[in-house]
Amino acid sequence: MVNPIDPTAVAFLMAENRRMPMHVGGLQLFRKPEGAGRSYATELYHQMRDVETIAPLFLKHPKRSIRTGGQLVWVEDEQFDIEHHVRHSALPKPGRVRELLDLCSRLHGTRLAPERPLWEAHVIEGLRDGRIAMYTKIHHALVDGVSAMRLLQSVLSTDPDRRDMPAPWALRPRAVQDPPANADEVTTSALRTALGISAEAVGLPGAMVRTLRKSVRNETSALSLYAPRTILNQTITGSRRFAAQDWPIERMRAIGKATGTTINDVVLAMCSGAMRTYLSELDALPDSTLVSMVPVGLNAKQSQLASADGGNAVGSIMVKLGTDLDDPADRLSAVHTSMRDGKEALSSMTPVQILAMSALGQAPAILTPLLRMQGLVRPPYNLIISNVPGPRTTHYLNGAQLLGTYPLSIPIDGMALNITCTSYDGHMCFGLTGCRRTLPHLQRLLSHLDDELTALEKAAGV
Amino acid sequence: MVNPIDPTAVAFLMAENRRMPMHVGGLQLFRKPEGAGRSYATELYHQMRDVETIAPLFLKHPKRSIRTGGQLVWVEDEQFDIEHHVRHSALPKPGRVRELLDLCSRLHGTRLAPERPLWEAHVIEGLRDGRIAMYTKIHHALVDGVSAMRLLQSVLSTDPDRRDMPAPWALRPRAVQDPPANADEVTTSALRTALGISAEAVGLPGAMVRTLRKSVRNETSALSLYAPRTILNQTITGSRRFAAQDWPIERMRAIGKATGTTINDVVLAMCSGAMRTYLSELDALPDSTLVSMVPVGLNAKQSQLASADGGNAVGSIMVKLGTDLDDPADRLSAVHTSMRDGKEALSSMTPVQILAMSALGQAPAILTPLLRMQGLVRPPYNLIISNVPGPRTTHYLNGAQLLGTYPLSIPIDGMALNITCTSYDGHMCFGLTGCRRTLPHLQRLLSHLDDELTALEKAAGV
């Protein structure tokens, strides 16, 4: 099996280096099913490993072919070894979430070997509260395809009694898939949010590459924002730190209702306050506000700021986070205003302009070598914050309740931090992926986020 | 820092591919010091990780340099990340030796990323009996150097109260090193046996490469042995299985005394009987005997069959294992005769012949591409069995008693199994490294070895 690799996937393969692995990841936390025994994690691992036929997507790896003049092609791994890809791991004592995040940081910081299919999944036991974790990682060159999304979507069920769901990498007839309750539920299922969306947050659709050359010089108001230089915007290293936590969406909704803002505004304000505290502690807070790139669906309604409504058609808004403001309420207000202005600017742009701006925002790591634009444009923002709606109802993996799902994204040169949030079952799950060396003590952002949520509640009087 | 890579190291780097990672490994088992708390593994991990200055050997990685015309050179890793190299891992429940060997198999089957320094060390907790394990892996291109050996040798102490010994990869003044009780103790310290010796067992000294071209056609009696084709002698895959166990040397010594054979003869006879049972169960036992390559020190006394007496000056003897014989006593006798004949043949060879023969035996994976000898000579043996003397006294790592040390070696195409034994503190530690796909249920060899030792005792009347 030899197949050509599409240009977008090639771009992700070429852009990858030791400092910038181009895989996305997902961390999922599960509660064991009722009556599960001590060896439940082992059983789950065996379920994931003992797959009769692997889907082609999970069997192929890139190779430079002499026959095609040195072009990268996909070839099937003739010595595919499932035990290399599906692994059973355990956490050191005391088995706190901290040890889990350490392991995920380490796994996410290691490049996938290009001589093998570009994915890994780890069933992780040893959390002291008995929960089971699954960390999955897949190269951006693979996850872009519609077939990948379809495969990943159908592994969870809303039925707690459903068993014998196949592994995401198993080849299976369509009939095995869970019948979608409604179309929305399918496109936003949990695995998609964990894996696919963090890909989208840095993704560069092929169409963007093609149109960008024509339109890069059409400056837009959204691009001409001033973003201060910060420690976030440096050359990064290959060391990763992953931090994750969730909060009840109800708390954010209450703040939004009391202040006339959206849940997404509250999420951005939480990030703003947390970044302000974090940078202050490092004595690195710039005088002017941080600017965040926020991906939005191109056809998004005013009320729904999401990049998840199908395909790669995402635009981006440059949001002033108000990190220069001392008061939490002022920051929330600044974010709300900036989002509203951004959406208005976006609606006044032509589709080509939107595509070009989005491409600039989303993939400088790829565009820089591809189009030699370095110096032509300056980085228009300081960090990326994505908020992607996920399933609203409880989902199960063969009876194990999914408790939370946290995306791991791709930091790149000049963009050392990526915050991706996803909603699931009444909770907003934050996944923070950063370069450990560029951003010391990244995990502190979690308590800063918590503090900021409390401060916003207080400010809103809820 | 840019340094040329010596030709032998280049050979190991070039010969490496996905099917044949060219690193050696060592598994060490420790008992926690008296009074060690619950977090002892974490403390040990921190000791290993928090190293002030890393020795240059552990900082360099290979790179193709444009300035030197595409030659491979060593460059210092400018983004060296100790947390990538020194890791803290845990075993899934129930934490038996089986789970430990599974983890080591997985770690040993993964290639070191050439973009980073070529080593890893894992502090492993979770064994249910409370022991702590350490798996260390290092590329053969590094371990060949004398400086590597020196660094690795001095990390253990015979003094249980000695603390603050540096990590093997720490740069340290000579004065910090343990004063050698005697020279023998230094050259055979435990880390050397675990890591260095398994390297030697497949090693190809630079001198051999240089002399081989002249002498390859000087056939020797040792080379003209007939080795049957077996499942051991196929193209292999990158999947690894590691099995390890130890037995009291006293049991082997007793058999040797009763039968007029050496401890090494008994070790080989154990392997012979175990291989016979293993291959029979797979219905793959050849009619004629398996032939094993056994490395010996070039200056070895008649009584000491070791490759460990300094440097890379190792010869090899082709030993008929007697796997065609039904009786354990007959197999021991056949091994003894074959070893004696081999040593006599070796003593009658010229140094160049010995070097050439040794090189043929030791590194077909490297010689094949280097000298294009494929077809010129047929594989003269079926497997490699090395037996390397280690320290005779109890050693400690900062107070933790070393209980056993097991080498992980390098299976190659045509040689799917490598058995390396090392003695330590009254025990003979066996490390079996094989291709998991070529050799199913490799771990069964452990119980076969155990059965064979018992059978030999019975046959010898001890």
From TrEMBL, chains A, B:
<feature type="domain" description="O-acyltransferase WSD1 C-terminal">
    <location>
        <begin position="311"/>
        <end position="456"/>
    </location>
</feature>
<keyword id="KW-0319">Glycerol metabolism</keyword>
<feature type="domain" description="O-acyltransferase WSD1-like N-terminal">
    <location>
        <begin position="10"/>
        <end position="267"/>
    </location>
</feature>
<dbReference type="GO" id="GO:0019432">
    <property type="term" value="P:triglyceride biosynthetic process"/>
</dbReference>
<comment type="pathway">
    <text>Lipid metabolism.</text>
</comment>
<keyword id="KW-0444">Lipid biosynthesis</keyword>
<comment type="pathway">
    <text>Glycerolipid metabolism; triacylglycerol biosynthesis.</text>
</comment>
<dbReference type="GO" id="GO:0006071">
    <property type="term" value="P:glycerol metabolic process"/>
</dbReference>
<protein>
    <recommendedName>
        <fullName>Diacylglycerol O-acyltransferase</fullName>
        <ecNumber>2.3.1.20</ecNumber>
    </recommendedName>
</protein>
<dbReference type="GO" id="GO:0001666">
    <property type="term" value="P:response to hypoxia"/>
</dbReference>
<keyword id="KW-0443">Lipid metabolism</keyword>
<dbReference type="GO" id="GO:0071731">
    <property type="term" value="P:response to nitric oxide"/>
</dbReference>
<dbReference type="InterPro" id="IPR023213">
    <property type="entry name" value="CAT-like_dom_sf"/>
</dbReference>
<comment type="similarity">
    <text>Belongs to the long-chain O-acyltransferase family.</text>
</comment>
<dbReference type="GO" id="GO:0004144">
    <property type="term" value="F:diacylglycerol O-acyltransferase activity"/>
</dbReference>
<dbReference type="Pfam" id="PF03007">
    <property type="entry name" value="WS_DGAT_cat"/>
</dbReference>
<dbReference type="GO" id="GO:0005886">
    <property type="term" value="C:plasma membrane"/>
</dbReference>
<keyword id="KW-0808">Transferase</keyword>
<dbReference type="InterPro" id="IPR045034">
    <property type="entry name" value="O-acyltransferase_WSD1-like"/>
</dbReference>
<dbReference type="Pfam" id="PF06974">
    <property type="entry name" value="WS_DGAT_C"/>
</dbReference>
<dbReference type="InterPro" id="IPR009721">
    <property type="entry name" value="O-acyltransferase_WSD1_C"/>
</dbReference>
<dbReference type="InterPro" id="IPR004255">
    <property type="entry name" value="O-acyltransferase_WSD1_N"/>
</dbReference>
<dbReference type="InterPro" id="IPR014292">
    <property type="entry name" value="Acyl_transf_WS/DGAT"/>
</dbReference>
<keyword id="KW-0012">Acyltransferase</keyword>
<dbReference type="GO" id="GO:0051701">
    <property type="term" value="P:biological process involved in interaction with host"/>
</dbReference>
